[in-house]
Amino acid sequence: MSLSRHVDPEDIIHHLQDLRMPSSQATSSSTGGQQQTLQHLTPFSTPYASQRDIPKYQIPREGAPGDTVYEMLKDELDLDGRTNLNLASFVDTYLEENAQKLMVENAGKNLADNDEYPAMLAIANRCVSILAHLWGVRKGESAVGSPTVGSSEAIMLGGLAMKRRWQERRRAAGKDTLKPNIIMGANAQVALEKFARYFEVEARILPVSKKSKFCLDPELVRENVDENTIGVFVILGSTYTGHFEPVETVSKMLDEYQEKTGIDIPIHVDAASGGFVAPFTHAGAGGQKWNFENPRVVSINASGHKYGLVAPGIGWIIWRDKACLPKDLIFELHYLGGTEESYTLNFSRPGAQVIVQYYNLIHLGFNGYREIMENCLANARILSKSLEATGWYTCLSDIHRPAPETTNTAEAAAAAVKGAVSSAVGRTEEAGPGPETSAAYVAGLPVVSFRFSDQFRREYPHIKQETVSLLLRARQWIIPNYALPPNESDTEILRVVIRVSMSFDLLDRLVADIVQVTEQLMEKDEVDLLGVLHEQKHRRKPVTKEERAEKEKKREERKHKGGTMGGVKEAGKDVKKRMEDGIHRTVC
Ligand SMILES: Cc1ncc(COP(=O)(O)O)c(C=O)c1O
Questions:
Q1: Which of 137-151, 366-380, 393-407, 521-535 has the lowest mean pLDDT?
Q2: CB half-sphere exposure, 167, CA atoms < 13 A
């Protein structure tokens, strides 16, 4: 008999269930189910524990006790990844206790019910004002904005406003409005492309390259804009590598284009993650004017649920001035004697996140956010440097590399002086984390994108990078491995997003785990994944005091022999040997 290549596990279980139970008792989730006992001793003393599955596809006729269903759902959800170890996502997974209380206390409030919840509306407006100021709104301009469900909705609105304004201008000039286009890099997040497709705008998706840091290339922007370009989406920062796209460089290019042609093309900045990073960090946007200080930037979006540090479900869109938001996108809502303006896609939406956003802004303040973002960047630098120190990996992200002379150096020097003064007088500067800040480094998101080094690939051609991701998944870390955008898709990257909840200790564990799984693969060379997975179980035993002392001794001996602490400085040489002790904080 040949083995079947596919089986339906639900069929098997239901079949066995039917065999075991008299037909009068057997229940199928899809046929409704019978009267169930409502009494039970513990949630696990009900038939759900052993005989019946929870109805999945159709509503059961009778309900079941709440604590039973709760326990069953909780158990099923244990199959999900652990949020804190999900390093694939930019979305916040940590909520401090007061924020949790505010979320629960306001869970029932609909942000659309302005008249019923005026305090919540006032809080939303305050957040808009705070963000507009944080993003450099200028005197004399009246910024407008709104909370959205996430950056995606905000991007739709920003794009739509640019399209409508372009249409207005074209109609006023007696020109057609048939072929609008919008410019973005091939690294653009799907929301940007969705805007183009849903709102019938040609997406001019420009190829990215190593030279453009896998981001939007200003030179290509120059070649691709024309009279039908409604605007340019510039991203702060790229989801692939965390690089900030050069808003000011693109903007200067558009200035030149306007001088030559008279055509004024606006920029919308997709600052989904960077909107809460660049304003706070010493590195800023690497010296580039990325926000409303730059007159060509008409609107900016950010996700409150990313580095805004709120639970999923909130984004923000701000236009620099009411004039940038066409009137026909604004709906006047009249109820209970009041009039409200609405310019969002969704009507009902959760309100609690808005309250938590305001809580964070007030509770953390500028310096609190700065400290958190600087910590995230510092941890991302440690991870990047540790990975490169192995010689096995190369980073495509640059936040651990020294800032170029022309950008952050003034800030770096100021920060270094500040740090030196602080240590001299024995106190910590209120506004700075110490002598080393992000100002000394290339600006970007706290993201580490890395791949096998060229030498590693030469020496271990059989090892697939994807296997590193799989093996780390077995240790509960979620670190995706995926290809760069289309014309660079031969390069695969592993990517770690460092969020607020990545403590230094956890980072230490992460580095150790990456080192261990890579070593295992190197020992196997020709990968036998199952074998490796099996072995992994046995290798992950705790290190004893004696073992640690022995390692310490070896390290000291090497130091005295004039070694290079695990061979860090000799990247590429004797890879296996120098990693025998793993990576240590001292080498970072
Ligand atoms: C650059 C960028 N733009 C847009 C989005 C979409 O944001 P949201 O998930 O808040 O809708 C993301 C999400 O990761 C992003 O990184």
A1: 521-535
A2: 17
- Cα 147 to middle of ligand 1, angstroms: 15
Q: Which residues contact 345 (CB under 8 A, 6 or more apart)?
A: 148, 153, 156, 157
- 368 alpha carbon to ligand 1 midpoint, in Å? 24
Residue nearest to atom 16 of ligand 1 (CA): 239
Whether 184 and 224 have beta carbons less than 8 Å apart is answered as no
- Picking from 89-93, 148-152, 222-226, 409-413, which range would have the lowest pLDDT averaged per residue? 409-413
In Å, the largest CA–CA distance within the chain is 84
Ligand 1 center–CA 3 separation, angstroms:
44
Q: How far is the CA of 161 from the centre of ligand 1 (A)?
A: 19
Pocket test for ligand 1, best of 91, 93, 148, 151 (most atoms within 8 A of CB): 151
CB of 152 closer than 8 Å to CB of 303: no
Element (H, E) at 185: strand 181-185
Q: Over 50: is that where the pLDDT of 571 sits? A: no
Burial of 18: CB neighbours in 10 Å, binned 0-12, 13-18, 19+: middle
Q: How far apart are CA 490 and CA 289, in angstroms?
A: 33
Closest Cα partner for 312 from 77, 81, 91, 83?
91
Angle between helices 465-474 and 504-524 in degrees, nearest 10: 120
- pTM of the complete model: 0.83
Query: Is the pLDDT confidence value at 574 over 50?
Result: no
Cα(306) to centroid of ligand 1, in Å?
9
User: Residues 91-95: what's their mean pLDDT?
Assistant: 96
Smallest Cα–Cα separation from 469: which of 431, 502, 495, 505?
A: 495
Pocket test for ligand 1, best of 303, 346, 447 (most atoms within 8 A of CB): 303
Strands 481-483 and 492-497: antiparallel
Tell me the β-bridge partners of 441. Answer: 402
Please name the amino acid found at residue 316: W
Tell whether ligand 1 has an atom less than 6 A from the beta carbon of residue 353. no
How far away, in angstroms, is 189 Cα from ligand 1 center?
Answer: 6
Q: What is the pLDDT of residue 94?
A: 96
More confident residue, 489 or 481: 481
Q: Is the pLDDT of residue 196 over 60?
A: yes
Ligand 1 contact via 152 beta carbon (within 6 Å): yes
Between CA 419 and CA 137, with CA 284 as vertex, the angle to 5 degrees is 125
Atom number, ligand 1, closest to the C-alpha of residue 155: 4
Is the CB of 272 within 6 Å of ligand 1? yes
For the segment 31-59, what is each residue's pLDDT rounded down to a tens digit? 444 444 456 678 787 777 777 777 889 99
For ligand 1, the distance from its centroid to the CA atom of residue 283, given in whole angstroms, is 22
The finding on whether 379 has its CB within 6 A of some atom of ligand 1 is no
C-alpha–C-alpha distance, residues 279 and 366, integer Å: 9
Instruction: Determine the 3-state secondary structure of 341 from DSSP.
Output: strand
